[in-house]
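Entry for zinc ion complex. Fields follow.
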Amino acid sequence: MDKLTRILRRGFLALCALLFITGSFPARAEPVRRVSTEEKRIAITFDDGPSEEKTKEILSILVENDVKATFFVIGKNAEAHPDRIREIYEAGHEIGNHTWSHRYLTKMKADEIREEVSKTEEILTEICGEEPRVFRPPGGYYSADSVALIEEMGYRCVLWSVDTRDWTMNSAEKICQLVQNGTGCGDIILFHDLADKRLSTPDALQTILPRLREEGYQFVTVSELLD
Ligand SMILES: [Zn+2]
């Protein structure tokens, strides 16, 4: 290696180190999946609602078990069932943004993402008088750019660490098994409050919520878990 190459190489490495130390390298935007904690706190979440019957059923089970949860709602469903949104909000649950029409972030241009998110934000703010602060990407699909864009809009982008697969219409027993075997401190559990009559989520909740409480878990909203 000649002297010039050596000097250039050293200069380049020094610049990299400087950029790294000062944090000038752009951080890769990643959604939150769970929170690292030793406290027995977990967040129960429901996606794709609200729906007329199933959301209502789930809300009363949450009241019976004194559980606060987070609902990642679809904007157009919120528009169709504003009363459900009001009930969720007034019961003290958190409401998150799940886009207007459940389009995948990876299939949209930046402008389309902005529109899907802000249209949902508008209707939720209109109904509740409070802006949603958490966002969940439909299908769990995202890119670093789309997450950065969502975060620029003021959201925490949130996925999950325990998947009940309830949207496949699996049995209440199977859902309980997945939750019981998979849940630990700081986990975020994914359920759905879909309109489909076959959805066994309410039945599963009747069993699993008291069981988790017996094990010492505290139920918090996603924002509370992240704080
Ligand atoms: Zn969804």
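NOTE: The chain is about 45% helix and 10% strand.
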